Amino acid sequence: MKQKGFTLIELLITMALLSLIALMIYPTIEDYISNSKVKAYRTQIQNIISSAKNWAADHPTELPDEGSTHTITLQDLIDGNYSEEVIDPTTKEAIAGATEIIISNDDGAFEYKVNLPEK
Predict the structure, then answer these.
(1) Confidence (pLDDT) at 119
(2) How many whole angstroms separate alpha carbon 84 and alpha carbon 50?
(3) Which is it for the CA torsion 23, 24, 28, 29, positive or negative?
(4) What is the C-alpha end-to-end distance of the chain, expressed in Å?
(5) H or E stretch including 29?
(6) pTM surpassing 0.90?
(7) At 10, is the pLDDT very low, low, confident or very high (cuts 50, 70, 90)?
(8) Rounded Cα gap, residues 50 and 63, in angstroms
């Protein structure tokens, strides 16, 4: 009489092969996830800068004179409805409202730099 199903050896070999495949794929997936978080983080910083540029367009009198700087905070942007709360994709926590955005005027060209507070 023929029995249906797999033997214990066949199951163990199949599990071993699947484990080896998983071990080979894991570093690739881990790198992909890590790179995605870094890209998402950079995108969040660019979104903060875009919000600061929108703020600057609405507040031209507060922009710095040539050779000087003006600092606003992320909380200022949130309070003014220029941005929503920003989540850091690497930690899944909100980026602090005390985060500073420094607007500098270098020969009439405005530059924006985001200074994140120390954790």
Answers:
(1) 57
(2) 12
(3) negative
(4) 69
(5) helix 8-58
(6) no
(7) very high
(8) 15
